[in-house]
Amino acid sequence: MRGGMHLIGFLINSPINHTILSWSDPADQRLEAMGSLKRWQRLAQTYERGLFDGLFFADTPGVFDRYKERSDEAVRYGVCWPPHDPVVLLSALAAATDRLGLAVTLSISANHPYQAVRSLSTLDYMSGGRVGWNIVTGHLRGEYRALGLNQLDHDQRYDRADEYMEVCRALWSGVREGAVQADRTTGVYADPAKVDIINHEGEYFRCHTVPPALPSRQGHPVLFQAGSSGRGQRFAQKHADVVFSIQPHLGGMKTFMQELGAASGSAAAPKVTFGVQPILGSSEAEARRRLDEFAARIPLEAALSRLSGSLGVDFSQVELDLPLEEQKTQASQGLMKAMSASFENRRFTLREAAVRWGLAVGMPQLIGTPEQVADQLETIWRETGCHGFNITPTTTPSSVEEFVDQVIPILQKRGVFRTAYEGETFRENLLN
Ligand SMILES: Cc1cc2nc3c(=O)[nH]c(=O)nc-3n(C[C@H](O)[C@H](O)[C@H](O)COP(=O)(O)O)c2cc1C
Questions:
Q1: Among 166, 384, 416, 417, which residue's CB has the most CB atoms within a 10 Å radius?
Q2: Rounded to 5°, angle at Cα 392 from 391 and 395
Q3: Ligand 1: which of 228, 310, 389 to mutate, most ligand atoms within 8 Å of CB?
């Protein structure tokens, strides 16, 4: 079907996804999966059985080290530590699936554009055009400290990213139609006249070469971008196919859609997916009990460690029970704004924001029976006009299996979600 709801599985290659200490839940098998490509492959196959557009791996390739200026809490509770490399995982998932899109976050902090294109486009070519790239400029201080690099200021990171994409695009378009001949009789593999030599001399990058990979069936990877500050949105309009946003409630989602539409002017705004976390039960009461179990397990200091890292502020210095004030940050301005904005005349206190962050990084939780969860997805989709959702599971693989077996059939029955893949590439399935 065209124009239906799009669904993407939102994952992290670490002991947890977005719920702190989910690894200690009896229903969770993430610790086992961390050392097993086969388990990850089975999880990907479950998503493909549910006809998800694709998977989306978030990645912050460093540790949360802002809270009390140390990383102890992140390490002690396994709060996205260790941050295992998702790009490595992707090729195993591509081998175990046929249609599922595979998007990965690759920070441009320390990767040269040539390396990013080589790695992602090799995978895109080999998987039959199923790769996506979440372009991130690197907002986490821990990432830079690990690499021994200075972190540029917020807006300058986006300026550098603009130039980064210029190099990527030159490398992506440099193998022209008909370049590859692969002629066994003449021994000619490709016509050099149809392969561009890239000569880039810019403010941040130099690149003199021919492209390192062939165009895939979808050309180049589908491009995601998740920064939502004003500067981030300008970057998205220029480069992204899809903007992925986290807004803690429906009101914030509507505002975000309006702002993005207004900023796009007469140009088509990029498609938007919102992050959500379903919590299913056979009754609403059971689903709420499940939520309470997750919340009760989260140490406040672990949640504050993650919040401090993502928002770039040491929250050990801030009063817990006062409304969270928007603070100046060089990290994620978009997330800071979303978490400190008032909704229904009220703002989250730091304690509330930390708990939300510990459970689902500020994503709204859709709680209830499969029917109720399907209702909530449909309401957000219809009322905001978003393209679809990045869905973070609580426990893996169990909560993914529940969603695929119990919610997907309801969405299909209502005619809002596909009953077969429309196309073969990620672009064909996601961007219709
Ligand atoms: C929904 C969402 C997902 C994100 N995922 C990642 C990620 O996986 N890795 C990362 O380094 N940054 C991630 N970010 C951070 C953004 O890419 C961006 O660098 C940051 O929010 C700062 O930009 P902004 O101030 O324009 O929002 C994410 C942000 C959002 C809102």
A1: 417
A2: 135
A3: 228
pLDDT tens per residue, range 51-62:
999 999 999 999
Euclidean distance between CA atoms 144 and 210, whole angstroms: 30
Rounded CA separation 171/213 (Å): 8
- pLDDT tier at 343 (50, 70, 90 boundaries)? low
* Helix (DSSP H) and strand (DSSP E) numbers for the chain: 17, 13
Ligand 1 pocket, 334 CB below 6 A? yes
Burial of 268 (0-12, 13-18, 19+ CB in 10 A): exposed
Partners of residue 224 on adjacent β-strands: 134, 242
Give yes or no for residue 58 CB within 6 A of ligand 1: yes
Q: What percent of the chain has pLDDT over 70?
A: 99
The domain defined by 6-280+365-430 folds into: TIM Barrel (3.20.20)
Distance 105 CA to ligand 1 centre (A): 10
**Looking at the chain, how many residues does it have?**
432
